[in-house]
Amino acid sequence: MRKFTCFTLGLLLACAVTVNAQEQKNDQEGYKFTDIKRLPTTSVKSQDRAGTCWSWSTISFLESEIMRMGKDSLSLSPMYVVWNTYHAKGDKYVRMNGHVNFGQGGASADVTWAIRNYGIVPLSLYSGLNYGEEVHVHGELDAILKGYLDAVVSNPNKKLSTAWLRGYDGILNAYLGEKPEKFTWQGKEYTPMTFATDACGLNMDDYVSLTSFTHHPFYTQFALEVEDNWIGEMSYNLPLDELMDVLDKAIDKGYTFSWGSDVSEIGFTRDGLAVVPDVNIKEMSDAEIAKWVKMPKTQQQAELLKKPGKEKEITQELRQQEFDNKLTTDDHGMHVIGKAVDQIGNKYFIVKNSWGDYGKYKGYLYASYPFVAYKTTSVMIHKDALPKDLKKKLGIKNLGKLTNVLKGQGSYDNFFGLFYFTPLRFSTF
Predict the structure, then answer these.
(1) Left if phi > 0, otherwise alpha if psi is -120 to 50, otherwise beta: which for 185?
(2) Do the beta carbons of residue 235 and residue 218 sit within 8 Å?
(3) What is the pLDDT along the chain (429 residues), one digit of tens a residue?
(4) How far is the CA of 288 from the CAs of 267, 292, 300, 307, 340, in angstroms?
(5) Which CATH superfamily is domain 38-276+311-418 in?
C-alpha cells in the first residue's frame, strides 16, 4: 500500500512537471500584450450581418470624442446615419443613371456628412430594427433598394414620377423605422441637429481624413480612387513615416481615430490579431517550399502566428505597390483607441471592432504598427491631433470651398460635382 502510494505520488509529480512544462511552453508561445494607453470608449457593439462597419466604427470614434471633450458617455445611432446615407445614395444613383456603385459599403466621411446635414440621435431612440429581426441583417433590404432603383433608372414612363423618392424612403422607413423629428432626452427636447451640437458638442468641421500614397503629391488633398466611392471625401496625403508618427502621437495626446484598412491578409485573425509576418520563401529549401504551398491558409496562419516574431519591413514603395495591384482594398472600418506592446517589445494599436463581444479580447484586437503602415487606406481624426506645423503646412484651418459645402452652403449634389470620387468604401466585414 505504501509502495503503491509512493509510486502514485511519483507518477502524479511527474505528470505535474510535464503539464507545467507544457504550460510554460504554451506561455512562451502565443502573443502576450501589455496595454500602454487605452482611451475611453463606449461598449463594443455588433453590426451583425450588415455591411455597415463604416457607420459603427465612426460612430464609436465620435462617442470617444464626446468623452474626450468631458461630456457624459453617449451611445449614438449608426442606423440613423445609415438611413440618411441610403437616401442620398439612392438619389445619386438615379441622377447618375445607375452609373455609380450602390451597396451597403460606406466611409467615415458618410457619417460626418450625415451628421452635418441631418444631426444624430441616441441609439436607444433609433435601433434600425423594424423588420422582425433581433439583429441587423441587411441582405434583403439592400437587394430591394437596388432593385427599386434599377426600376426607376430604366424609366419605363420616359419621365420620372414625383413619387419614386417617396416610395424609396418608404422602404427605408419600413425596414429601419421613421426618423424622429423631435424627441426628449434627459428632460430636454431636441431635434437631431440640436442633439448633435448641444448634447454631443460635435462639430464635423473638426475632422479630417489622412492617407499616404505616391500617385498624388504629398501635402496636398486628393480623393482616393476606390470603386465604391460616392461621397467625394478629400484626404490629406502624407509620407508614410509622418502618417504613422501622427497616429502614434495622437494616442499619447488623448485622441482616438477611425481606421479604414484591408483585413484580408493572412496575419489578420478573427481572434484579435493583425500582424505582417515576414515570410521569405526564397530562404526556404525546396522541400520546405513544397510543404508550405500545400498547407491550407488556416494552417499557414497557425504556423506564422505561434508567437511574436519578425514582421515585414513596410516601405512607401511596398505600400503603393499593394494598392496599385489591388492587393490593398478598403475592406473594413474600425476604431483605434490605444497602444500596447507584446512580450518582445513590438508596438501595436489597440483596435475596437464592431463584430460584437467575440474572440480572445472580447471585441478588441491588436494591430501591429507594420500592419497599420501596410494596409491602412485612410483614417479620420480630429485636426488638433496633428502637430501645429503640419496643420499649417496642410492649410487645414482654411478648407475653402469644401468647408463651405459641408457647412450646408450647397447641396450634396453640388458637393458630388466638386471632386472625383473618394476614399474608404468598406465592405461587409
Answers:
(1) beta
(2) no
(3) 433 333 333 444 344 444 344 444 444 579 999 999 999 999 999 999 999 999 999 999 999 999 999 999 999 999 999 999 999 999 999 999 999 889 898 889 999 999 999 999 999 999 999 999 999 999 999 999 999 999 999 999 999 999 999 999 999 999 999 999 999 999 999 999 999 999 999 999 999 999 999 999 999 999 888 776 688 889 999 999 999 999 999 999 999 999 999 999 889 998 899 999 987 554 555 554 465 556 676 777 777 888 998 999 999 999 999 999 999 998 899 999 999 999 999 999 999 999 999 899 999 999 999 999 999 999 999 999 999 999 999 999 744 334 333 333 333 443 443 333 333 334 433
(4) 20, 6, 12, 20, 34
(5) Cysteine proteinases (3.90.70.10)
* CA distance between the termini of the chain: 63
Beta carbons within 10 angstroms of residue 370's beta carbon: 23
The full 3-state SS of the chain, as one line of letters, equals: CHHHHHHHHHHHHHHHHHHHHHHHHHHHCCCCCEEEEECCCCCCCECCECCCHHHHHHHHHHHHHHHHCCCCCCCECHHHHHHHHHHHHHHHHHHCCCCCCCCCCCCHHHHHHHHHHHCCCECCCCCCCCCCCCCCECHHHHHHHHHHHHHHHHCCCCCCCCCHHHHHHHHHHHHHCCCCCCEEECCEEECHHHHHHHHCCCCHHHEEEEECCCCCCCCCEECCCCCCCCCCCCEEECCHHHHHHHHHHHHHCCCCEEEEECCCCCCECCCCEECCECCCHHHCCHHHHHHHHHCCHHHHHHHHCCCCCCECCCCHHHHHHHHHCCCCCCCEEEEEEEEEECCCCCEEEEEECCECCCCCCCCEEEEEHHHHHHHEEEEEEEHHHCCHHHHHHHCCCCCCHHHHHHCCCCCHHHHHHHCCCCCCCCCCC
C-alpha cell at 174: 419600413
Single pTM value for the model: 0.85
